[in-house]
Amino acid sequence: MPSLPHNLLVEIFRETPQLVAEVLRSIVGLEFPDGVELVDASETLIEMQSPEYRVDLVFRIRGPGSEDTLAGLIVEIQLAKKDRKRFTWPMYQHAYRARLERPVELIVVALDDAVARWCAEPVVIDPKGRLTWSPLVVGPSAVPWVVDVEQARANPELAVFSLLAHRNESGAESVGRAVLAICSDLDDDRSALYADLVLAFLNEAARAILEAEMRIENYEFQSDLAKRRFADGRREGEAAGEARGLRKSIAMVLEARGMPVSDEQRERLEACTDLDTLAHWLQRAAKVDQADDVFEG
After folding, report:
1. Angstrom distances, CA of residue 32 to CA of 22, 63, 65, 260
2. Which residue of 131, 168, 216, 220 has the lowest C-beta tally within 10 Å?
């Protein structure tokens, strides 16, 4: 079953096809005539959208000001090694090529270099190994670090992809800082989405640095995509963090009052996620004469 990060990346690429185009141009080296348009065409492979055969993103590449299709493009987001993909990827490409009667490229986006190397290994098609197939693969090491504001301003989509690719690495806040600096130069939709991605995708340490610099206390997501996908998760994360803090405080208060927490009591603490209950236990921890009394009632 696709993970939340996988589904988020699919939505990001679907809603910002210019980001896909920039990946193709700057990183893969595929050039198309000026003015071409990437159009979401997922419905063209609808018969393949079963649990076993689920294509992430399908595009038609149209000529400038034209409805004519020049080529097709399939984008697969791969966050882990899955042997089944090495059988389905060639089928996706050839099925779409047969449908369009045009050339079709398949590109795999991986956010881990080990996964990217695995994706790039040739697939043997026939028993004697005479026919092999390989996708185009983009992994983090192929994506430049866009930390200069002027570079980000000249190429906003590359800056955003740099953020996605390096979000968990040390120094990722420098990419986030560059993206945030150019958001005011963009149209409203991209500005809202790209700012949201910085604060939703960066690792915890990098996000904390930027939030401190920006003096953000309670950031509210602005883009529709982020509101749909990130807000609920962040609220759940904040509640989980508050619960962890309350559990830790209860144990510390009891131990400071000379009542060490037993393994059984600690298990009961860890099992509780209700904030009201934990807050009540914390109040009792400051008053009771023995640790068991905290949990009575």
Report:
1. 11, 9, 14, 68
2. 220
